[in-house]
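Box 3.1 — From sequence to structure: ROK family protein
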Amino acid sequence: MTGPVIGPGRNLDGVRRGNLSSVLGFVHRTGGVSRSQITQLTGLNRSTVAALVGELVELRLVVENSPEATNRVGRPSPVVTPHPRTVAIAVNPEVDAVTIGIVGLGARVDRRIRHEVDHAVTPEETAAIVAGVLTELAEDLAGRRVMGIGLAVPGLVRSLDGMVRWAPHLGWTDAAVVPLIEAATGHRARAGNDASLGGWAEHLFGVGQGVDDQIYLNGGASGIGGAVISEGKALGGHRGFAGEFGQNRPGFVDPADRRTPGGTLEDEVSRARLLSVLGMTGGDEAALESALLSSTSPAVHEELGRQRRVLAVGLSNAINVLNPELVVLGGFLASLHACDPEALAREVAAQAVPAAWEGTRIQPAALGEDRLMIGAAELAFAELLADPASVV
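Predicted structure (token representation):
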């Protein structure tokens, strides 16, 4: 990659701001990079990189650490890392909990609080819960600069303004949750679909790094959502609603696998069904996966096999259409994969077009329960990363 150059309509200040964005972006995505690596990645000269890093240090967006130890001849290059005091607040409302996190640049999740609820919260309740948790976190946030709040919502979120058009499991329709959050907290907020944000987080920081064509499916308490990365870019669609894999209606290799007449993928492949057969009333992702892996119950194994077969149909259809290099599974779908990854791959391969399946991998999300927090934080960091010089 080469550094920005002055083109028609661009002045020196515009080029400087673009270079600042590039440098901060590299530091953010790597969690730490040497000045010499920044020089190589951007194609800028060393003195320009030194000046840009110096400006980012003054803005309290990065920190320069002791030079990296190398065997190369010459002076070692300082390592540039994200400033620990610059953070975003991430929020994920679900049917059983509202999770709030403090996330730093570099995808560093400092705190994650799961506020459990016994009913699907309204947008107003969500705003009140977030405000209350932030009050509890006042000591953790003292001295930090909060760049904003990002909401990962399990539903269709309009990209233009963050309006939640439809979140069926929460019971939200045309919910203007963003202004409610802003009024309750005093911080700027942005909203996006939870699975789209989780998929983007995996692309930037997780198992999907360096893979330009991938599909991400997230399984949560509110069903199944997804994201598509094509040629390194998130596929949003006309209004930002792309990736609703859970609302597709799968076919069935064995009709006996059907549980809901005319049901969607998320009706058939369901966290609630897994919890029920395990005799559990709730729990986080780690608890559910541990219970599935340790269970010797024939009923549990039968349900795992049924859900895996139905999921394989949905995945094979998506692979036929999109021809990804990588399929990433998050949430309880990652747990389904963990229980028998070879069987899932075989069942997908048996139904996909051979040429489309060739070279495709299925892997669990690498960021675990942090993926939605990191993805939501990207919304809050977006303006900062695009123009670091705008920070006051």
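Summary of the box: Residues 95 and 120 are 5 Å apart (CA to CA).
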